[in-house]
Specification:
Elements: H1 2-29, H2 33-39, H3 43-49, E1 65-69, E2 72-75, E3 80-83, H4 86-89, H5 98-107, H6 121-133, E4 138-144, H7 147-161, E5 168-171, E6 209-212, H8 226-243, E7 251-254, E8 257-258, E9 264-265, H9 268-280, E10 284-288, H10 301-305, E11 311-314, E12 325-330, H11 350-385, E13 392-398, E14 401-406, H12 417-430, E15 432-433, E16 435-437, E17 443-446, H13 454-472
Parallel strand pairs: 3-15, 5-6, 5-7, 7-10, 10-11
Antiparallel strand pairs: 1-2, 2-3, 4-12, 8-9, 11-12, 13-14, 14-17, 16-17
Helix pairs in contact: 5-11, 6-11, 8-9, 11-13, 12-13
Length: 474
């Protein structure tokens, strides 16, 4: 009984504190009339206003979110959820982080938007900090507005430095954005899912990318052992570089953990050999670290794997919940010139830069250590859950970068696509927001904020097990 009461208090207290804080602000600060109007929208108004919003990605049908704190978020009906998506993997420090809010309030009194053509202390400081943490020999940084444009910035650098070249290479089932410059690099332009998806509608406007096999360790199309399949992938890559591109490949863009493909962790030997092939053919190795930055328990995946690329691309969580992206390039490469090779109005957002710098400070003061510890705990407990639910075919975990692949049984490994979607829906009922991944949509992503504690991990496990039970043990 006492454990139940304590659990309910822990569950209710953040919501109560948020309401108390809002009431206090209303009384003391006299909330702006417009903000009060927005916060006061009724369910009927929300339903009516939703007709004006176009969504080109994601899905509706989940809760309308109202406010959050830490790893938890509340909807407009007052129901709370533990968010295992960190809002598209961007809220590394959770909702309404006190340290981030404090630095926002202080800095916003001085400046917010500054055009790219003017220097700022915030940009200098953050560039220096990122360069100091990056692999040796990578010390120049260019900022931009989002992950897709950052991939495109890396492509520009590659073209400048690798000639003659025209083609870029990506892995099977890769995802690197939906801009016209990156959409062709992503699986959404292929028939990987068994049908043509959104990216295929814009092919006349998108770039052509050449794809190479990805070293799938759980289920590969040839049914051979893992090491043999890695060798096959590498041999095919060398053949494509030799005979399948016109000119040199300008660059090979890879995620060290293919997130959208199903949280596929690339084997170290594969990365090491891919680095050698790129050197042999004088092409650039480009790491898309938009999702791995910080989330694997290290600032950069390049440092974790010990294989240094020529360019690192950052986005999503870089700004601690505010829009910011960047590339870091090798000192050996020619960078951007100031004659409008790379110009964005919002590429010098000082507010995002100070929050990014503050987040890096917090990374060093325990956040990354907690990410490693809690990630390992979640991974071990999810694997243990497979004894009860053999439909958990594989658990792929590095830090807080976790994917759970659902299959009909461990031998056939046929993907449970329909059931995975139903489990995600059941999660909403139990107060759990899960992500979806894998081109077959049978991988559930569990990627909460990096500040999560042990009790919250246990709550995720309890609610995840309840969702599995609802669907798989009807």
């Amino acid at each position: 009984f006492y454990e139940y009461i304590n659990f309910r208090i822990r569950e209710i207290l953040p919501h109560f504190l948020h309401l108390t804080e809002q009431l206090k602000k209303v009384g003391e600060d006299k909330m702006d009339k417009l903000l009060s109007e927005i916060y006061g929208l009724s369910s009927e108004q929300l339903q009516a206003y939703s007709a004006h919003v176009m969504l080109g990605g994601g899905s509706r049908g989940g809760p309308v979110l109202d406010h959050g704190k830490g790893v938890r978020v509340w909807d407009t009906e007052g129901k709370d959820y533990i968010d295992c998506t960190s809002q598209s993997w961007a809220l590394y420090l959770g909702y309404a982080n006190d340290a981030i809010n404090a630095i926002i309030r202080e800095h916003i009194e001085n400046m917010t938007h500054i055009h790219q053509g003017f220097d700022t202390k915030a940009r200098y400081y953050l560039a220096h900090k990122l360069a100091s943490l990056a692999p040796a020999g990578m010390s120049r940084v260019s900022f931009t507005v989002g992950g897709g444009p950052a991939i495109e910035a890396a492509m520009k650098i590659a073209f400048k430095n690798v000639q003659p070249s025209r083609d870029f290479v990506t892995l099977f089932d890769s995802y690197h954005g939906t801009t016209l410059g990156t959409m062709g690099a992503s699986w959404i332009s292929t028939k990987s899912i068994g049908k043509f998806f959104g990216g295929s509608r814009f092919l006349p406007l998108t770039r052509h990318f050449i794809r190479i096999p990805n070293p799938v360790t759980y289920r590969n199309p040839l049914g051979v052992d893992t090491e043999t399949y890695i060798d096959i992938c590498l041999k095919m890559t060398r053949e494509i570089f030799q005979r399948g591109t016109s000119g040199k490949p300008a660059g090979v863009i890879v995620e060290t953990i293919q997130a959208s493909a199903g949280q596929l962790i690339l084997p170290l030997r594969y990365l090491q050999e891919l680095r050698k092939i790129c050197d042999e053919f004088e092409t650039l190795l480009i790491y898309d670290e938009i999702q791995t930055f910080g989330r694997i328990g290290e600032v950069f995946a390049a440092n974790h794997f010990g294989v240094t690329p020529d360019i690192i691309v950052l986005g999503k969580g870089l700004g601690a919940g505010l829009p910011l992206a960047a590339i870091i390039i090798s000192d050996k490469l020619e960078g951007f010139q100031g004659d409008t090779e790379e110009l964005h109005t919002f590429a010098n957002p000082t507010l995002s830069m100070v929050t990014a710098a503050k987040q890096l400070e917090l990374f060093e003061n325990g956040v990354l250590a907690n990410c490693r510890e809690m990630g390992a705990y979640l991974g071990s407990q999810l694997r243990a859950l497979s004894a009860t639910y053999p439909e958990i075919g594989d658990v792929r975990q590095l830090g807080m970068h976790i994917g759970v692949e659902l299959v009909d049984n461990p031998e056939s490994k046929n993907p449970l696509e329909k059931e995975a979607g139903e489990i995600r829906t059941a999660g909403f009922r139990h107060g759990l927001i899960l992500g979806m991944g894998g081109v077959r949509h049978n991988v559930l992503k569990i990627k909460p904020p990096l500040i999560i504690n042990r009790d919250e991990c246990d709550e995720i496990l309890e609610k995840f097990a309840a969702s599995l039970r609802d669907v798989l043990r009807k």
